[in-house]
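hey can u check if this looks right to u? its 116 residues, i copy pasted from the old doc so theres a chance i mangled smth
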Amino acid sequence: MFLIDSQKNILAKITISEINENLYIGDITDDYLPDKIRETFLRYEEIINGQMFSLLDEIETEINGFGLAVSQENDFKAFSIRDLQMMSDGKISFRMPETKLTVEQATINTQLRIDR
């Protein structure tokens, strides 16, 4: 599975290890995140760890403004996501409400295809 931007550029390869209802949990295994996105998620993690919850709405609005989505590796169809969390240790989680994939479906065809 890939994390993609609104133009379907690949930003990261994701390996899903667990699906609970519509919550997908896994690891970022290859990452091509632009600095602005990486820095935003580092700030998000600092806000969470520092329990500065009054700043959450602003940073979540910024994250949602990136227009990030995920795609399966075999078709690049974009699936919208919400509640995206990417941590500095490479962990990722998100909700994908309109689709129910199994772990196997989320990780098929694991060869990374990037034209850069």
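Residues 2-97 form one domain.
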